[in-house]
Design goal:
The chain is an all-alpha fold. The protein has helices at residues 3-17, 29-36, 40-52, 71-95, 99-116, 123-142, 147-154, 174-196, 200-211, 214-221, 224-232; strands spanning 56-58, 64-66. The chain has two domains: 3-66, Orthogonal Bundle (Arc Repressor Mutant, subunit A); 71-240, GntR ligand-binding domain-like (Four Helix Bundle (Hemerythrin (Met), subunit A), Up-down Bundle). It has a two-stranded antiparallel sheet. It comes from Paramylibacter ulvae.
């Protein structure tokens, strides 16, 4: 994939996930090219890539539309993620972590510990927490000795909230976010302890609980605020929002 296409994919993906493109709008090579200031050729390749990722649906004739996800879709994707990451954690515990994995994971834990020790969090802290989260999960997946785990995760990596390390801020819910981050950090510590102790059963079961938690924990700690945040992205159907 050329640099121009990679850049176009990244920009369009961000626009889709952040709700910057109307979900009902037809997206064509021409409109995407005009939007990004690129020619139709890289725009065509970028749209095809986003279709393969599951973020776009090819329409009859010309163009694409954004694929809306239901809450049920997100829950199913989370279920898959939890199994895959559980396998990675269990394998890493069986093998024993490499020095590379140890450095990355302990760096991540130190970063999140510093954040949850604060009295309050800002957007900056939430961004740092997300970065630390990505470091933690990537280190486990990338060093587990099974490349198919990472390759399989790539398929769902661009669905909002589902990607390993994903974290979404909900405006006005700082205390709830802090609680969710504290729980996540604690689970990271427990999973890492199981991996270092060479306990694959415990590592896998704890990772499955942790990786399968984004939607369940967000509902528990944030509730309707989380649902409203997902609706603002335009990628979740309003009619699919659970009634409260």
């Amino acid at each position: 994939m050329s640099t121009a296409v990679e850049s176009a994919v990244t920009e369009l993906r961000g626009m889709i996930v952040n709700g910057e493109l109307p979900i009902s709008e037809r997206i064509t090579e021409s409109s995407a090219g005009n939007l990004l200031g690129i020619s139709r050729t890289p725009a065509r390749s970028a749209l095809s890539q986003l279709e393969s990722e599951g973020l776009l649906i090819k329409l009859e004739g010309r163009g694409y539309k954004i694929r809306p996800f239901s809450f049920a879709d997100l829950e199913k994707a989370t279920e898959v993620r939890s199994v895959l990451e559980g396998i990675a954690a269990g394998r890493l515990a069986s093998m024993g972590p490499s020095e590379e994995a140890t450095v990355a994971i302990e760096k991540s834990i130190a970063m999140t510990e510093a954040i949850i020790s604060r009295d309050a969090v800002t957007k900056r802290e939430i961004a740092v927490y997300q970065e630390a989260n990505e470091i933690y999960h990537s280190a486990i997946v990338d060093t587990c000795g099974n490349d198919f785990v990472g390759q399989s995760l790539e398929r769902i990596a661009n669905i909002p909230i589902i990607a390993p390390g994903a974290f979404t801020e909900v405006e006005g819910m700082a205390q709830a976010e802090m609680l969710r981050m504290t729980v996540g950090h604690s689970q990271h510590v427990i999973i890492w302890d199981a991996i270092r102790s060479r306990d694959p059963v415990r590592a896998e079961s704890m990772m499955r609980e942790h990786a399968g938690a984004p939607i369940r924990y967000a509902k528990l700690f944030i509730g309707d605020g989380y649902q409203r945040k997902l609706m603002t992205t335009g990628i979740v159907n309003r009619e699919d929002v659970p009634k409260t």
